[in-house]
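User: Hey, my collaborator sent me this sequence without any context and asked if I could get a structure. I don't really work with proteins. Can you help?
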Amino acid sequence: LMALSMDNASNNDTTTVELARLIPTFAGMLWRIRCILHILNLIAKVFVLGISLP
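Assistant: No problem. I've predicted the 3D structure and written it out in structure-token form, which is a compact way to encode the shape of the chain:
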């Protein structure tokens, strides 16, 4: 296993950590690639909807 491409959901962090535990040669979070389309969608929402600061 070389890398994982996933969206930004927190359960994917858990999956990555667990896979690193089960597969000693897998570097875990170092090789987790977040989905570029999801990232672009989040950026587009900021431009369209703006950022609400507390």
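In plain terms: The chain has a mean pLDDT of 78. You can pass these tokens on to your collaborator as they are.
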